[in-house]
Amino acid sequence: MNPFIEIITQPDNIAIVIMIFMVTFFMVWAFQQAFQNDRLLAAGLPVEGENDSFVDTFKPLVRIELIIAVVVMVGLTVWSIAVDAPLEEIANPTITPNPAKAPWYFLGLQELLVYFDPWLAGVVLPSLIVVGLLAIPYIDINPKGNGYYTFSERKYAIMIFSFGFFVLWLLLIVIGVFFRGPGWLWYWPWQEWDHARVVFEPTKDLTSVIGVDSRSWLGEVIGGFIVFSYMAIGMVAPYFYWKKNNPELLSKLGMVRYITIMFLFITMMSIPIKMVLRLVFLIKYVWILEYIGPFHIGINF
Amino acid sequence: MKSLPEITDKVKKNLIWKSIFRRDYRNTVRDKAQAVFGNVFLHLHPVQVRESAVKLRFTWGMGGITFFAFILLVITGVVLMFYYHPTIDQAYTDIKDLEFQVPFGVILRNLHRWGAHFMVIVVMIHMFRVFMTGSYKAPRQFNWGIGVFLLVLTFLLSFTGYLTPWDQLGFWAITVGTNMGAATPLLGYQGPFSEYLHITPYNDIRFALLGGAQVGGNALLRSYIWHCVAIPLISIILMFVHFWRVRKDGGISKPQK
Q1: Tell me, what's the ipTM?
Q2: How many CB pairs under 8 A join A and B?
Q3: What is the pTM of this model?
């Protein structure tokens, strides 16, 4: 069979195909309504739902809930009749499948393992995703766009969230499911998986590009300088930009909010930056911090 | 031969019917309200809702669909528990029995698995909708936080269920997933700084998750109890809060300008 058909019709992967269609559909619907409301706002007209009247719960709402429940139930029943849940061989600790993949919704995080060490990709970054999501209502002080679809009134919030959700979360899941084969090597969907394939990628660390051993003390210092500069510039540059162009926003935000937003944003953007460094320039680590004096640290970025 | 109105009259005008439904439903304002707050399930809703709440355009029904998927998973899950032993000797053959011995066993398991995938998908889309309508803004900040925890719990529910068939797919997915725990700073034996706390593979966070240094019988039992008892209980409590706060914060969000 065509490898592409084979991979998208694997029972568990059908869910991902369904997800791609559903997410695309609702993304288009959300932005279509947002732009529609933006036109109304620009014309000074009330947005959709602003002049809502009330309807009875019984029966209009109860009716639509029942219809949706029936439709979902029918859909899931058809899906369950058509496709059988997979059951592989009995668990065997001595036979490791290649690739060994986590459940599909964690494959974005597993993909991060290519770019970051496990303590970052598997523990710190997922925790920061949760922290960041929890923080959203408290760091987004824009009072506009409350209770209706709009893009123009909250451009930056929507762009940052969409980048995180569609690219860093969903796209990485799709890559993990459909584009990663044995050895976590990249396979196009039309390529046959080859278990004997070995790709030798001579990765190096950032400081070795300028001829400094990344594990020497000079390499550690330079690497640390680069990482801290990235954080510092990310923290300070927007501050001075806003101080000059939008001091009102800055004073409304306050220091705690500003630092939280910038920390989360800098951390989020370090993911695509590290991906480009790794994929395009074959750079494994920017900063290796194995030892400080006699103390073992072992955190590498 | 009696006419239909006579038969309905007979059915309705007796002590049993009246004890259950108390009163007749006439299409009056009073009875419409009574139908909602006189019903333990429907009284989650207010008597009247804003038009947007009954239009698919605004909410897409995603929160309700997530809740529906949860109920379906509880029902199919409870039935599956009748046929399942969480031991490494029996778990796999129990799933085989579902396939070959149990009436409708295949469709039961399929509904549970595809329902679970479906719930993960719709809960993410629900979060996207709430974000896009700015519904996390005042006064709903706290309820967004509850929602974030419910999202995480949905992932964990699905994740803990992955191991239960005790096949290669689940075994290695859980192995890969829990190996991340070993990389936790301070508390995982491969994580940074853990050596200073004398953390080994036998006392780290991964050991606590698995009940052992490898995925084995204890891990199967632990994931089973998390999956069937502990996480559903926590989720149900948070759902109470989530739904209650939707009401208290003014129902489906409306444009505030």
Answers
A1: 0.94
A2: 270
A3: 0.94
